[in-house]
Amino acid sequence: MLGKPRKKQEMTTEKNQVSVLFMLFSILFCVCLIAANVLETKQIAIGTISLTGGLIVFPVSYIINDCVCEVWGYRKARLLIWTGFAMNFFFVGLGALCDAIPGAPYWTNQKGFHEIFGLAPRIAAASFVAFLVGSFVNAYVMSKMKIRDKGRHFSARAILSTVFGESADSLIFFPLALGGIVPNHELPKLMLWQVVLKTAYEIVVLPLTIRIVNYLKRHEGADVYDNDISYNVLKIFNL
Q1: CA pair distance 73, 223, nearest whole angstrom
Q2: What sections of the protein cross the membrane (predicted)?
Q3: Is residue 28 part of a domain?
Q4: What is the Cα–Cα distance from 165 to 88, expressed in whole angstroms?
Q5: Count of the separate structural domains present in the chain
Q6: What is the extent of the structural domain holding 134?
């Protein structure tokens, strides 16, 4: 009788553990989100196309999301997304606090610091909401397509999940953050280019993504199918 609770506790502990590789992917995911926040403050131009600097790194977060969902399943991806959200929120909060504290009398770079870390509440809120919706749409599409295709056609679900996820992200972020600032006729073009280029990014690095996924499956001995799970985004610690 005394042994049963201990065994149950050991099984629960093992179930709730994550691997070292999952932890490293989570760290990289959080770094990409935080870097994207900083890089988004610069508007860049590729030819006649106007974009934000976040395009350089933000798609990597979707690739990591794909890898985690494919190997460890939706429940681990859900933990990853909420962890990234929390760390991003923490970073933005620290930046806003530091921006609000008066600078030293001899310091002359307040304007530049404010341009990077003084995110307007509207933009910050739009970014957080768009990230959550886009990331969960991406993970959901990956999970459902894997079950439907019985593990085949990874390339198709990696690309389609990015299309759906990035579309949801852009449809939320740009109207909320830039509506009334960017001309209305420019917003659809800006959103479309973001989706197209981020998806193209995914396609270009797809051979590398496939190699990483195959390595992770071999190394971790994991290839999770999300049969009979809850897709409730709030069940964070249900691993």
Answers
A1: 8
A2: 20-38, 44-64, 85-107, 119-142, 154-178, 190-210
A3: yes
A4: 18
A5: 1
A6: 20-220
Rounded Cα–Cα distance for residues 210 and 158 (Å):
10
Question: Which two structure tokens, joined as six digits, stand for 189?
Answer: 């073009």
Specify if 81 maps to a domain.
yes
- What does each C-alpha distance from 160 to 32, 97, 157 come to in angstroms? 21, 39, 5
Long-range contacts of 137-141 (CB under 8 A, 24+ apart): 137/161, 137/164, 137/165, 137/168, 138/62, 138/65, 138/66, 138/69, 138/162, 138/164, 138/165, 138/166, 139/65, 139/69, 139/74, 139/77, 139/78, 139/81, 139/165, 140/74, 140/231, 141/165
* Ramachandran angles phi, psi of 234, nearest 5°: -90, -10
* Averaged pLDDT in 10-residue chunks for the chain of 239 residues: 48 64 95 87 76 81 93 95 94 92 92 83 85 95 95 94 92 82 79 86 92 95 93 90
Q: For residue 179, give the 3-state DSSP assignment.
A: strand
Structure tokens at 77: 């991806």
The per-residue pLDDT for 43 is 78
Partners of 141 in the β-ladder: none
Phi-psi category of residue 47: left, alpha or beta, with phi > 0 → left and psi -120 to 50 → alpha: left
Q: Which helix (H) or strand (E) holds 45?
A: strand 43-46
Asked if residue 111 is part of any domain, the answer here is yes
